[in-house]
Amino acid sequence: MTMNTTQSNKTINNLAIELLEYYYLNDPRSLCVAFSGGKDSTAVVYLVCKMLLQLREKNIDLDKKIYVINSNTLAELPPLLDHLEKALDSVRSYALKHDLPIIVEEVFPEQKDTLNVQFLGVGMPPPSNTFRWCTDKLKVNPIDKKIKEIFPDGKFISVIGTRRDESFSRSTRIEKLSVKGTNLKINDRYPNASNLMPIEDWTTKDVWEYLFKQTNDLVNVDFLWQLYSDASGKNASECSFVAAGGKNIDDGKLGCGVSRFGCWQCYMVRDTDKSLDGLMKSGYNNVELYKEYRDWFWNLTQQGWEKTRDVYNHRTQVKDLYNKGGKDNPKFGMTMPKGLKLQLRKKSFKQLLDLQDRLSEKIITVQEIILIQKRWLDEGDIELTAFKYARKHNINIELTNAIKDLKGKSKLAKIYYKNNLLKKNFSKDFSILTLKRFAVQYNINKEKITNKFFPSKDEEKHIRKEWKNAKRIDTKKVFIKLYDFLCYNQNKI
Fold first, then answer.
1. Model confidence over 111-129: pLDDT tens digits?
2. What is the dihedral of CA 467, 473, 478, 482, to 10 degrees?
3. Could you read off the pLDDT of 262-293 as tens digits, one per residue?
4. DSSP letter string, 156-215
5. Nearest C-alpha neighbor of 421 from the set 410, 408, 434, 407
6. What is the rounded distance in angstroms from the CA atom of residue 15 to the CA atom of residue 225?
7. What pLDDT is attached to residue 196?
8. Which residues of 50-88 are buried (b: 16+ CB within 10 A; e: fewer)?
9. Rounded to whole angstroms, how far apart are CA atoms 462 and 108?
10. Contact between 407 and 370 (Cβ < 8 Å)
11. Are the C-beta atoms of 13 and 49 separated by less than 8 Å?
12. Which tens digits make up the pLDDT trace of 358-387?
């Protein structure tokens, strides 16, 4: 089906409903609506419900389910998260009340992939335009899992609220993915699926004008407008619709309706987060505390590789080297910077627990703390510092088999560190943390210890100097190896 959105005898919302109706009735695949809780996806949900109600009025059987899926990152701004949960419940109730074939699904990232575990446990640095790891872990992977569960054959139509006027790059991408002769777009993630964008030609003004014509039975549009207005840093009355004859948006005041929301720790927004700032100015409870931590963590991690990053791969405990570009690349052969240093993560973890106490609401779970501690132990935290911090903040961690296992590994590493590494004649050449990390890794798998990287103080100093200069620095010095020293001093391990 093709549809000319310039037809003057039809309103844009009628065209959008006809588009949804056509593919609901004529395509064997089910519709799957991506719902974020924002204005665009909210408009799409209203259109879908309207389409189903109109079909029922025509006595057409609604024998095909429509799925509404939300991906909850567990790290949204507090007001938005509250709005989102209420909206999902409202959509469920609305579908039940009107007997609509709508199934609402909410997906979450796995505990190991949450921002808390990734930042504080794994040591992932804040994401950037060239390394946007957060989207896959927090949103894409959970949705993929649910999609495979609902549509094992991968056949469905994804209904999304993407619009051309959001940006030139987005408009160009929409054009590139368009399927000739249809209103569908290529879904570059699922080959048997397609994308449908019923409001792709709507402006921001169109979206708000449509939403204001709806009741709050489905989603609280008035609160949504208030939320966007506040996040814009303006009073809602300054952004309000004007015109005696109806709810029409004043173009001169439209800037209040274009705010974007995301994780409260989103670092894709550099320096300042306008949504956080706007909500804080509007008096939302505790937003300033979230912002304070966000800014503090950002500044802590932006002091240069030489001060913030580790020289070894946290997961494999090996050293990775730059190997692209050949000798023309000044970094070729240089040790690659890996995750955030353990000292920084411990400091940030303590700061986050302090924040949680000040907020009097949960922002980190016990399971996340356990996963964080597991990663820290792998890197030499034989004192189990995360558990100690948790106890100081009255967080109860039950003694499960998993906790017993961590404590057992910690005990063995402490014994080995005290008997084999502490105060030996070679120990002064290595940092205490490196020696403790060796003790842990040796007890985990002594057969692979020679493949792992335990730099001396001199070698680590040399690597950090290379990072500061952003190029490989040749040296004739032969750096000592911890394993070799152990073998030399003890004959065998």
1. 999 999 999 999 999 988 8
2. 10
3. 677 877 765 555 566 666 665 577 888 988 99
4. EEEE----GGG-HHHHHHHHHHBPTTSSEEE-SS-TT-EEE-TTTT--HHHHHHHHHTS-
5. 434
6. 24
7. 95
8. bbbeebeeeeeeeeeebbbbbbbbbbbbbbbbebbeebb
9. 42
10. no
11. no
12. 998 889 999 999 999 999 999 999 999 999
Gap between the Cα atoms of 223 and 47, Å rounded: 19
DSSP string, 414-432: HHHIIIIITT-TTGGGS-H
Q: Comparing C-alpha atoms, which of 465, 409, 404 is closest to residue 436?
A: 409
List every span in the chain annotated with CATH 3.40.50.620.
12-220
Tell me how far apart the alpha carbons of residues 287 and 264 are, in angstroms, rounded to a whole number.
9
Total Cβ atoms within 10 A of residue 23: 20
- In the predicted structure, residue 145 carries a pLDDT above the cut 70: yes
Sheet holding 184-186, edge to edge: 102-107, 66-71, 30-34, 156-159, 194-196, 184-186
Coil, strand, or helix at residue 49?
helix
Q: Which residue has the tokens 């609902």?
A: 150
Neighbouring CB atoms inside 10 A of 241's CB total 15
Encoding tokens for residue 492? 């065998």
Q: Which residues contact 114 (CB under 8 A, 6 or more apart)?
A: 74, 75, 138, 368
The pTM assigned to this predicted structure is 0.86
Q: What is the distance, to the nearest Å, from the Cα of residue 115 to the centroid of all Cα atoms in its chain?
A: 6
Could you tell me the CA-to-CA distances from 69 to 227, 268, 355, 364, 387 in Å, in that order?
22, 24, 31, 24, 36
Q: Does domain 12-220 have CATH number 3.30.420.10?
A: no
Give the closest residue to 33 by CA, choosing from 104, 139, 136: 104
Integer Cα distance of 170 and 3 in angstroms: 21
Which residue shows structure tokens 């507090």? 78
How far is residue 43 from each of residues 33, 117, 158, measured CA to CA in Å?
11, 34, 15
Q: What stretch of H or E contains 56?
A: helix 39-57
- Report how far residue 336's alpha carbon sits from residue 26's, in angstroms, rounded to the nearest whole number: 53
Please tell me the predicted confidence (pLDDT) of residue 489.
66
Q: Please, are residues 365 and 456 in contact by the beta-carbon 8 Å criterion?
A: no
**Assign residue 102 a region: left if phi > 0, alpha if psi is -120 to 50, beta otherwise?**
beta
pLDDT of residue 236: 41
Give burial (CB, 10 Å; 0-12/13-18/19+) of 172.
exposed
